[in-house]
Design a protein that fits this description.
45% of the residues lie in helices and 21% in strands. The strands form three sheets. The protein has a five-stranded mixed sheet with strand order 1-4-5-6-7, sandwiched between helices. The chain folds into two domains: 8-218, Trna Endonuclease, Chain: A, domain 1 (3-Layer(aba) Sandwich); 221-299. β6, α3 and β7 (143-148) form a beta-alpha-beta unit. By secondary structure, it is an alpha+beta fold.
Amino acid sequence: MAEVNSSSGHKLGQLVGDWFEEYFVCPLLKEVAESLNLYADSRFNSRACRGHKIIWEYLDSNEVDYDAVLEINGTNAQKGIPVAFIECFWRRGSRHSKDKARDDSGKLMPMRDTYPSARFLGIIAAGDFTAPARELVMSRGIDLFYIPKAKIVESFNYCGLTIDYDDKSTEYEKDKIARSFIEGFSAKEKRSEVATTLINLVGKNEIENYITRVRARLSSSPQEIRIILRQQSIPIRFESTQKVALFLNDPDLSMRNPAESFVYEISYSDGSEFSKEVTSMSELKELHKQISTLEKHMIGDNKPPTWSYR
C-alpha cells in the first residue's frame, strides 16, 4: 500500500485554492482591468518592479502583501497608482470563518486610509464561508463576491473530479481522493474546463455585475475637498479637483510654514469619506495628484463591462 500523506486534506485544499485564484479570480480581474484600462497585478505576473510578493506600504511604513491590486498607469517595469486591493480564498469548511473575515478585512482596511485613490477594497471568496463572516466583511465597507461551496464542488464533479469528503474520513480516504485529484487535474486543459463550468454555474450576469460594482466605486466623484491647517479650525473648501490644483500651485503664504501640518479631506458622491494628515506641502500635493489622476482616468473613455473566459 502506498504511503499515506497525513496532510492530504490540506494539500487538496491548497491545490483548489491555487486553481481558484489563477483560473477564476485572475481572469475576472484582468477583465475588470481591461474594461477600465487598468493594470491587474497578481502573483501570476512577473514584474521587474517587485519580488514574488505583491507588497504595498501603509501607515507608519508597515508593509503587507496582497493577492491582487489594480493600478492606474502600472506596467511590468513600474508600479502605478493603486485603486483597488483584493484578497481571495477557498475554504472547504466553515471553521474559523469569522476569524478569516476579520483577518482579511483588517488587512485591506488600512489601504483606504493610506491611498486616497484606493476606492475599491474587495474579497473574492469561495467555499463554506458563514453568513456572520460575510456580514462582517460587508459591514466594514468591503465588497464581497461570494461563490458557495456547492458550486465549486459541482464544477469539479461535472468534470470528473472529486474535491470533497466527509469530515469523518480517515487520512487514508483523504489521501486516496487527493492522489486521484492530482492525477486528473495536472493538465491545463482540465483546469480551464473546470473554470468554464464554474463560470456557467455562477452566471455571466453576476460576473458582469461585479465589474460594474468596481466601475461604480472608482467612478464616484469628489463633491467637496477640504484642506485644514492643524492649528486652525476653519477648513479651506473646494468644489472640484481643478480648484484644489490651482490653490496648491500658489498657496497662501501661511500654508508654506514647514512647522504646519495639514489634513486633506474628501467627501464623495457615494457618501464615503477620506481623511489624512500630512506634514508637508509635497505630501499634500501627492495626495491630490492621486485623486486627480483617478478622476481624470475614470472620466476618460473606457470599454463597457464584458466577460469571456481566457
